[in-house]
């Protein structure tokens, strides 16, 4: 290791938390054989990012510079509910006789006995011993971008700032599964059943 350089290791199992890069000094004409090492931090958790953004010093500087961090008002949903959903204790709701024509769709589950109508494919997912809860919507077809915009307006979730997908509470997973942070199963099922899916 070079003189004056530091290698920061994580607390758990020696996972490197920083990368060392060697650069030449701008004063290399005076001391040509003196390399300098800068440590670049490349790993931040979501909690650290939130802590950095809500730091009182940063908020004071933003206030002085006139930066407004209030979220923009949400657009109302483009497609209002067409019926009042009724749910059985097991979570099933009867679909309407005719499904309205939307640019997106959510298919119900299949392979039920006696050709019964299935459930809405909205599931809760508990990971990390219940510390991370997400809601998944499967079988979404059609215009997914419009579906996500409608879902955002119904759940009142603002779009991510600066287009940062890591901070976005809604993600598109493999196979078209749409994942929402938090346990929003009842709200999403009520919205989908109200639209007539």
UniProtKB/TrEMBL annotation:
It holds the Pfam family Img2. This is Large ribosomal subunit protein mL49. One of its GO terms (molecular function) is structural constituent of ribosome. It is found in: Mitochondrion. Keywords: Mitochondrion, Ribonucleoprotein, Ribosomal protein. GO terms for biological process: translation. InterPro entries: Ribosomal_mL49. Belongs to the mitochondrion-specific ribosomal protein mL49 family. Its main location: mitochondrion. One of its GO terms (cellular component) is mitochondrial large ribosomal subunit.
